[in-house]
Amino acid sequence: MSFLGRGAQSPAGGINQERIEMAINEIDMVSDVFNRIVSSCHSKCISPRYAEGDLNKGESVCIDRCVAKFFEVNKKVGEKMQAAGANAQATGSTSFAL
């Protein structure tokens, strides 16, 4: 079965629009995360005055750490939101705090 619905045809025999929308949304989200990482880590790690065409060792290390921290924070926020959502579902509440 294809993600875009090629393996399993929709009842009308056409393209599965719902799966295409899901794929487009996922691409948009991944692109947004990538762009935020690039913007954030570039401003923190790379001097605005370019002296060389390649990254130097310090810039490379900074970018590696920046990206790792970005994903670690993203993971922790996701875990907190899942826990808060599960807690809200268990108690019947619709609001939660991080």
Short synopsis of the structure:
By secondary structure, the protein is mainly alpha-helical. The chain has a single domain, classed as Helix Hairpins (Orthogonal Bundle).
Secondary-structure map:
Layout (H helix, E strand, L loop, with lengths): L16 H29 L11 H35 L7
Tertiary shape? flat
Radius of gyration, whole Å: 21 Å
Number of helices: 2
As for the number of domains, it is 1
**Which residue ranges are poorly predicted, with pLDDT under 50 across at least 5 consecutive positions?**
none
Mind telling me the CATH class? Mainly Alpha
First-last Cα distance: 38 Å
What pattern of helices and strands is seen along the backbone? HH
Tally the beta strands: 0
CATH topology: Helix Hairpins
CATH homologous superfamily label: Mitochondrial import inner membrane translocase subunit tim13 like domains
Secondary structural class = mainly alpha
Strand content: under 5%
Largest sheet geometry: none
Helical fraction: 55-70%
